[in-house]
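Hello,

Our lab assistant flagged a job as stuck in the queue for most of the afternoon. It eventually completed. Since we weren't sure the result was trustworthy after the delay, we are filing this so someone can double-check. Below is the sequence as submitted and the structure that was eventually returned. Let us know if re-running is recommended.
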Amino acid sequence: MVIDNSSENQVKCARRLEAISERDKEILDLQIKVVTEKEYEERIDQADVLILGSGLGSSAITITRRARAKFPWINVIMYVTEQAYADGAFRSVHSEGVRKALADNSSPIDLLQELIAIHADFKRDGRARDGRVIVVCHAKGGVGATSIVAGLAEVFSSFNRRTLLWDLDTASRDLSRSLAVTGAESRIISEWVNGGREINRDSVREAVIPISDGASVLIPPDGIAESIDLVCHTDGMLIAERIIEVTSNLFDTIIVDTAGHLGPAMGALLRAADQVVVVIDDGALGLTAVDLFLDFVKALVGSTDKITLLVNSYTGNHSKVSQLASQLEPSHKLGGAAWRLPPVPYEPKAALWPATGRTLYSLGTQDLRNALVEIAVELGIVNKNQITAGPGLDAIPSGRWYQRFLGRKGGALSI
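-- returned structure --
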């Protein structure tokens, strides 16, 4: 909220915010309101940050005191005249609760830096959305990674985590097809890749397809050339980084089904990820495949700290996890935390969930549901305290998890 004593001074103050790039405004989620000193008390409950113009003079201190007495968490940035700043006014205002005092002739960059610092504080305190990025990959096909992605997404959304599923399988589109998600939205992703449209909040809102109250899907491009460029061209790295940058401010969790692609976009996603989940099976071929695959993943991630292995147990023998760890650890040295996820129990209905409106979470056995919830907890998406209040380990979600949107245009996604 920008406050000053006259329209002229309000405009002067607001122009400093207008100098901030649209990209920075999106990242900071800036919503700007300009009011007079007579109006601010009626609307201050809507503000996280007060920007006080120099025209307020000594009234700025009074506004600060009143605002922080009512809302102690509010941040105050105060502008003062060049003379007042030279006289050391910035020293005394801090004792009144002003976060930062700036001179009228200061650069807009100074204001931007302070807003970035405030936004970082908000993220740390949980007051600003900072989407957690989980990249799911696999060393060889057929290990059930897509089924696990869909199941985890249902768990996340069931615990009120606004979730985006990004289908990066540009060839077979298994995740999108399994969720019966198709549409003209794929053209928007193609336009992102070929430079026809900017990746910003508005275009992301148009591109994502809601499939439930808590989950949405980002599907692959509709063109073959754009699909290849996204995963193989070096520009795909910048595109992937930008998509994560925007969606992290719109969703609580972004889970990416990479389909095992290795390339510039994959590298960018692995580096941006909070957690990299490598899905493997417990067969001999799976062991040799993941041994080679981990060399690539470690090189792209740059650290083993966020790499986690998830064993999809085809044999049903959970002791195989420790055996796999004992064979891979000597050469890869991932550490115990990489093996903390419970194995996914064998599920005979695994091939039946696509296009049913249910995933492995609600379609499978009790053991499978329990395992998926435990995985969500270990990945830091679901808090253990939520389990008793939320769907719980023993609850089966009722009804269809998603519904196909036909002719959906006009139904805006509220973010």
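-- support follow-up --
The delay was a queue issue, not a problem with the job. The result is valid. The CA atoms of residues 42 and 257 lie 47 Å apart. The chain has two domains: 6-125, 132-389.
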